[in-house]
Amino acid sequence: MNKKVEFTDWGLIDYQEAWNRQEAVFEATVALKTQNRTNHTQLETPNYLIFCEHPHVYTLGKSGHQENLLLDEQGLAGKNATYYKINRGGDITYHGPGQIVGYPILDLDNFFTDIHLYLRMLEEAVILTLADFGIAAGRYAGFTGVWLDADKDKARKICAMGVRCSRWVTMHGFAFNVNADLDYFKNIVPCGIDDKDVTSMQRELGYVLDMELVKDRLKLHIASLFKMEMK
């Protein structure tokens, strides 16, 4: 039986507001799991898939290095960008308009308890979406995310990932460059990798993509891979 997942698109939303909303949903799910264990109940835990876009923002994960942000406070203000240290894995990345940011808040006990498989499935959904638009993508050994020409000198990243998982409940997720302004990546060492390029669907195809069409394909592939019934 497919697991029910509530899909929401928050649209363009401030990063801090989205983070607060994520935390509230995440904590409620963890609390319900704790209640089930304490009271020996089996109340069903909810699952969510959230899409959104953010105004220009740089985020640094728990294992990241602040020196990978190449701007000071004045530089951030000049770029109309904000900066947050957050509680996901990974190093520094950029979010901005024209990027699909995905926040799956899932109880993996409802799917499979394997965080590596979880990441590979998210990557696969992006790879399949890119294939729908004629872009061949894959994985880069030793790194998370989705890459083009990963085994060549011109390797470039099109989707970054960084997640948090506690008691098998996930939050944070992925950032998929569709029509993103790639100049903003020049102000960081993306994901701590200083010798690889970053790209977008728009750059690869030479035209501006219909964001809703890309979202629809991505949502379809995530649902299929995870055997979700979207609500």
List unreliable stretches of 5+ residues: none
Structural category: alpha/beta
The topology string of helices and strands comes to: EHEEHEEEHEEEEHHE
Termini Cα gap:
15 Å
Reported for the largest beta sheet, the result is: 8 strands, mixed
Please tally the β strands and state the result.
11
Number of helices: 5
Q: What's the gyration radius in Å?
A: 17 Å
Helix content: 25-40%
- Strand % is 25-35%
Q: Shape, please? A: globular
Mean pLDDT: 92
Could you characterize the architecture of this molecule?
The chain has 231 residues and is α/β, with parallel strands linked by helices. Helix content is 30%, strand content 27%. The protein contains 5 helices and 11 strands; from the N terminus they run E-H-E-E-H-E-E-E-H-E-E-E-E-H-H-E. The strands form 2 sheets. Strands 1, 2, 6, 7, 8, 9, 10 and 11 form an 8-stranded mixed β-sheet that branches. Helix 3 crosses helix 5. The protein is globular and about 50 Å long. 38% of the residues are buried.
